[in-house]
Write a structure and sequence with these properties.
The protein is 66% helix and 3% strand. It has 143 residues and is mainly alpha-helical. The protein has a two-stranded antiparallel ribbon with strand order 1-2.
């Protein structure tokens, strides 16, 4: 069983997948920072200072002992208040769209760089060669 597992792990596609997952996780962190720290503040500035992470609807009661701000999503969530956090969802959707667009651009550029190797035309098969010889012989014998 160990040998079979070793063979499975040694396959190129499994190692490629592992590398892709690690790089993807790191890339996801970069894109999240791009979205949270750069793009969302710019969008907020354009829309009049709107911070998407603070857009939510409180669905449950705020605990009596809660001392934080009723507009602090993270503090309310930590206090166990049920909320509909559509602002965080919009941020996640924007993250996804940015990641998908960047990956599309990378794949598009890679496809332009890596042109498929030109395949030389296949020569005639042995059967085709034999048939050509028979055809040529028949042409010579024809009166």
């Amino acid at each position: 069983m160990f040998q079979e597992f070793k063979t499975f792990i040694a396959r190129g596609n499994v190692l490629d997948l592992a590398v892709a997952v690690v790089i993807g996780a790191a890339f996801g962190g970069i894109v999240s920072s791009l979205t949270d720290d750069l793009l969302m503040p710019l969008i907020g500035a354009v829309t009049g200072g709107v911070d998407f992470s603070s857009h939510f609807v409180v669905l449950g009661d705020i605990p009596a002992g809660y001392t934080g701000s009723p507009n602090d999503y993270d503090a309310l969530k930590k206090a166990g208040v049920a909320m509909f956090g559509y602002g965080k969802f919009l941020t996640a959707v924007l993250n996804f769209l940015i990641i998908a667009f960047i990956i599309f651009q990378i794949v598009r550029a890679a496809n332009k760089l890596v042109k498929p190797a030109e395949v030389a035309p296949a020569g005639p098969t042995p059967s085709e060669v034999l048939l050509a010889e028979i055809r040529d012989e028949l042409k010579v014998r024809k009166p």
